[in-house]
Specification:
mainly alpha, 15 helices, about 75% helix
């Protein structure tokens, strides 16, 4: 339903005749769109064991990457409808894309799965097997009631706030590439259409790299090193662009590949890694909303650091993006150290006092349950 109304609002943006109307539509576009990505991340995470999740999630994530590859070219083509029906080209972009979203949202209701406990596409035996696998993987960590004690455990968990920094730091790069990629491509002397076409391989390569790393991360049962790999790869790209006066435009184009690939290595792992260490329905759902919701504020940062007066060097933009990338790297390092420390305490029996809690509370501890082990 959210995507259906999202499409309706997009169509309305194409018809609105005032700035106030455009702002109101943009507000409701955010309202209906806000829950889609974290909701998808949460739903996918409820079906797979922790070291099965990264590959599955990255399949979904890569679809968004590839959609970004074609969206610029599509928008450019739709803009050429300017004058048709008396509407400007930008209006047709909202109208057509909004109609497509609305049309596909209707049948999607019948394809989106329910929770594992009630999944209609599984037989009773299959549901029991699925729930048994998940229960073993999560070591009795459940949070099926959001009472006052559960709320304190959720919002008092340091991992969520470190997770925000992990995601925000790398997501800024994801947004930023849309600002400086066209500039670099235009410096090669290409037309707008050719520049849009030549941006497509960047995202295709990034999607392939993202899927490959996801498979390795699951197979090797490790997350931290891969997040840092993405940070380092993107850092090399930013270093090249900050020294662009000393390198050719072709090398700058290669730097964009490094930055986009690095970002799309780390970004999906930051989401899954945090979800891997959240136990229980409520805690995992709230975590997804907070991490992705607040982390996406990186878009506000990215849209204000690439100053027109600094074109084409964008020193401030590249510098801030590089700094935020290492905020992500630092947060990932703090995260892994914190998880290792907590696992050590549990191995030493320093959390066993929780076994003496009332049964009702013990069975609703989420990842605070002494038997739950964190992964990294």
């Amino acid at each position: 339903m959210a995507k259906f109304f999202n499409g309706i609002v997009m169509v309305s943006m194409g018809f609105t005749q005032s700035y106030t109307g455009l702002v109101v539509c943009r507000f409701f576009l955010g309202v209906f769109e806000a829950g889609f990505f974290p909701g998808c991340a949460y739903l996918i995470s409820m079906y797979y064991k922790r070291y099965e999740l990264q590959w599955r999630f990255n399949i979904f994530f890569s679809c968004t990457v590839l959609a970004g590859a074609w969206s610029g070219l599509l928008a450019y083509a739709l803009a050429h409808m300017a004058g048709l029906g008396g509407y400007n080209g930008w209006r047709w972009i909202f109208i057509i894309e909004g109609l497509v979203t609305t049309v596909f949202a209707i049948p999607s209701k019948f394809f989106i799965v329910d929770w594992p406990e009630t999944a209609g596409f599984l037989s009773t035996d299959q549901r029991h097997l699925l729930l048994h696998r998940l229960r073993i993987d999560n070591s009795e960590a459940k949070m099926d009631r959001l009472d006052s004690k559960a709320r304190r455990r959720v919002f008092g968990d340091w991992k969520i706030y470190v997770g925000i920094l992990m995601y925000l730091g790398v997501t800024n790069t994801g947004y930023s590439t849309s600002f400086f990629t066209p500039t670099i491509l235009s410096q090669l002397g290409w037309t707008a259409v050719r520049a849009q076409v030549l941006s497509i391989p960047i995202y295709v390569v990034a999607a392939v790299v993202s899927l490959t790393v996801a498979l390795l991360s699951d197979q090797l049962r490790h997350r931290y090193a891969f997040t840092m790999l993405g940070v380092i790869v993107a850092t090399v790209g930013y270093t090249i662009l900050l020294s662009q006066k000393h390198v050719s435009t072709s090398v700058q184009y290669f730097a964009v590949y490094l930055i986009v690939c690095g970002a799309y290595i780390t970004q999906p792992i930051a989401i899954v890694w945090l979800a891997n260490n959240m136990g229980g329905h409520y805690k995992r759902s709230i975590n997804a909303a907070i991490q992705i919701g607040f982390g996406n504020s990186a878009g506000i940062i990215a849209s204000n650091i690439f100053l027109t007066s600094e074109r084409p060097t964008f020193k401030a933009g590249y510098g801030v993006s590089l700094g935020l990338l290492w905020v992500c790297g630092t947060a990932c390092t703090a995260f892994v150290l914190g998880l290792k420390s907590e696992n050590k305490k549990r191995d030493q029996g320093k959390r066993n006092d929780r076994f003496r809690l009332p049964t009702e509370e013990l069975e609703n501890l989420g990842d605070d349950h002494p038997n739950f082990k964190f992964v990294y």
